[in-house]
Amino acid sequence: GAVVSQHPSWVICKSGTSVKIECRSLDFQATTMFWYRQFPKQSLMLMATSNEGSKATYEQGVEKDKFLINHASLTLSTLTVTSAHPEDSSFYICGITGGETYGYTFGSGTRLTVV
Amino acid sequence: GDSVTQMEGPVTLSEEAFLTINCTYTATGYPSLFWYVQYPGEGLQLLLKATKADDKGSNKGFEATYRKETTSFHLEKGSVQVSDSAVYFCAQDMNTGFQKLVFGTGTRLLVSP
Lengths: 115, 113
Prior knowledge:
The structure holds two protein chains of two kinds. Chain A is mainly beta. Helix content of chain A is 3%, strand content 53%. In chain A, strands 2, 4, 5, 6, 9, 10 and 11 form a seven-stranded mixed beta sheet that branches. Chain B is 0% helix and 47% strand. Chain B has no helices and twelve strands. Chain B is globular. The model of chain B has no long low-confidence stretch (mean pLDDT 93). Chains A and B meet through β4, β5, β9 and β10 of A and β5, β6 and β11 of B.
């Protein structure tokens, strides 16, 4: 199956700064990647679907200007949390889909703490 | 809209007990259904899946059967181990052909020796 690498695994940043999280598909050309946010009571929320070479599709209620997603190649998607605030602290998980053959594969997640 | 509902946890069991975690879905058409497991501090791992009605997914002693008539995909295991302690997520692809995945709220399982 596909392998997904997500970096960093954890990051601490100051309020007002921006943080970039990378999601790489190591052995599969991923046309579509996903970004999820996990809230403290474990619920996983789909934030956006990242499409290679085009704009990401954001779910309702997710701020596009706050959470910038770039999917410039078939192996890399990035999520940038801009002007981070403590309420952005969360666990962010990326994933790819390889269709029915390979299914969905997820990265190991990034723990973001904004202080 | 299309969604997944699973039982609230935590589910607390003794080792070797029988496990059931209920999951139901609402969808247009026939989505593929999944169970994922998340161990503390880690990402998501696929546990099992089923892509059509009456399919049974199985892995590591866990099983789930795609029941179209009851729109359910309950997770079962005959004898749990302490190492099974984790959060379990039911998910569906909303009949998008593996192009979108939505999750239930997750159920924490705690197994004591």
